[in-house]
Specification:
The chain has about 625 residues and is of the alpha/beta class. The chain contains 20 helices and 27 strands. A hairpin with a 4-residue loop joins strand 2 and strand 3. Bound molecules: 5-amino-5-deoxy-1-O-phosphono-D-mannitol (M6R). This is Glutamine--fructose-6-phosphate aminotransferase [isomerizing].
Length: about 625
Amino acid sequence: MCGIVGYVGSNLAYPVLIDGLKKLEYRGYDSAGVALHTGNSIEVYKKEGKVSALEGSVYGKNIQATIGIGHTRWATHGEPSDRNAHPHSSNSGDIAMIHNGIIENYAQLKNELLQKGYTFKSDTDSEVLVNFIEDIKINNECSLEEAVRIALKRVVGAYVILLLDKDLPDTIIAARKGSPLVIGIGDNAHYLGSDASPMLAYTKEVVYINDYELAIVRPDELVLKNLGNERITPFVQKLDIELASIEKGGFDHFMLKEIFEQPQTIFDSLRGRMDAEQQSITLSGVDKIADKLLKANRVIIVACGTSWHAGLLAEYVIEELCRINVEVEYASEFRYRNPIITDQDVIIAISQSGETADTLVALENAKKQGATIFGLVNVVGSSIARIADAGAYTHAGPEIGVASTKAFTAQLAVLYLIALKVAQLKGTIEATLFNKLLADLAKVPEHVKEILEDQDAIIQEIARKYSDARDFLYLGRGYNFPIALEGALKLKEVSYIHAEGYPAAEMKHGPIALVDDQLPVVFVATKDSYHEKIISNIQEIKARKGKVIAVVSHGDEVAADLADDVMFVPQVHEIIAPILSVIPLQLLSYHIGVNRGLDVDKPRNLAKSVTVE
Ligand code: M6R
């Protein structure tokens, strides 16, 4: 979490930094700030709130600097405030630093510094680190680069740090462990960012910095070193993202744009990987670990949030089609308990960002115990993609809205392909079922388009009716149960309405006590093997005067007649149905959030990429 940017070159730095911070604001928006080296001094501007608040407070100032660093914060240590905003300056004012991550032993370092007479203006761990570095620089009479190297050997935690030094008017020092850092190579300029979006307008050539690397960045020079002071040759990669893909393109919000992009993004996830006519699936990542997968004791899926919901559906599908034992784990739990992992286990990590701290550390632990790691990731070159033994990108393109939509359906599309491919290799699927599922999968982009075109206006009306509700219940059975969870999460995130997802039958074991004539209950009730059961569950809610909103298959008059409000989706095989049933739920959440006047792209307290545990 937190977004960091940097620029060193021959143009004015401030506009580049502000533009970059706006692109990274999805990572946190509690405060924003910049530090600029004017040649003689370092000027720091920071403000609580979004980047626009910082811009307002700096408006009219003539900042002549061609080097600077900027930060957009998701608060960890210390409340959101001007005082706790980054950049933080050292006691002398000679060093300014921005930080993304958490310094776990900051209390101990702070005590040492307090005893030496250092004072602190903020409650942050970051201010401790910049002073710790300054203290080393003074005591060792060394360069900033050397001081950073020494300091980081004592630091416990995760960081990307960018520093400016009053004595170095053309240099940014950067270092990384556990949080992402990309450096773009421009024309006599370098751009730094938490991801590549801030530099897309200027360059397509980037270097992804690895853990324990330190970068010395000047307009015409990028020097990479490890913490042992040995030089490393930068590995320059070409980006294949277009600038348009990170702009709103005429939509009011990124979330809406991303929902409407899904016919294309799902198509992109499947493109080149399946051939319905030839009945074949090509996934080089699966081929690479095919022997492990076919012999696996079990598959463990590790993820968080929406990606965990994709994992839960994958459990149902892989167990059904491949007859492999699957466990789905919350990464944050998995990493701290003592799971039994062997070299016979295959871990599938699912992550949009590829940077989620809990998922990343869970994988590192599992890898040490010999498991094979398969990464299903959206962001190309991200940390999870790089530590995996094999993997597949979801190809959803940059997802800017904090609430995940198109990344989720892209995850489902690729997980279906993985399950089908493994089932085919294992011989656990009949050819007729394989062909039916592949044919239905091929039609998903078209069906999603149809839902968006036919249902959006209807869903806007439904949203209007329920925008003032205090709570929502989401119910689904079988393959649609993970979609009930995802629908509830989406609503919570963008509307701040309390919502819970449950297996429809489990409702009788507690949540039914919530039902009254004020409670909207969303049923994900497409036609499947459990259909009659879920119809009974709808009846049970109706008998208690609950308001039923149902996602139903076209032509299902029974469910449609029972429900107060209906959202239709095309009928496909029940295994494929969830990738369609989630679309109306995304729209419902979006419209309710907008009706409530909320910033659906940047919901309060959230950040897109959770790089702290
Ligand atoms: O980048 P990841 O997929 O690893 O992120 C996991 C969760 O943080 C993420 O899905 C989160 O729950 C979203 N806000 C959901 O909309």
